[in-house]
Amino acid sequence: MTSLDHEFGVANLIRNKGIGRKRAHPLPPLLAQLLARAGEPAIVERAVSRPWASALFEGQRHMVRLRLSGEDFPERGSAFMAGLADAEWVLPGHFVADISVDDGDADMESVWLELSALTIEDW
Fold first, then answer.
1. What is the pLDDT of residues 31-49, one digit of tens each?
2. What pTM was estimated for this model as a whole?
3. Of 73, 87, 88, 102, which one has the greatest count of Cβ atoms within 10 A?
């Protein structure tokens, strides 16, 4: 192997090591901030992520099912959704490009919201 191979990362590829710094996954801090926005009691019933890419950007598409309960769940649900698209999110190494409530329903004890979010790596 030449010094040129090592300089351009061939050694990393052969040893199956990541090139550059790995960034933390954006889902855990996003979930924590969604729960804080929802207030107590609230739970994440399901959260999944999948890779996403365009010609210029890389990121993750997230689907989250959130359930809010408690005596004041109708008011908290409305407050949660108000201004959601304009909210500020702190995700190290990423930013939220899009977030929305795609579905939801309520019963006498709780409301559930199906959210989707797109996070992009912030270079």
1. 999 999 999 999 999 999 9
2. 0.79
3. 73
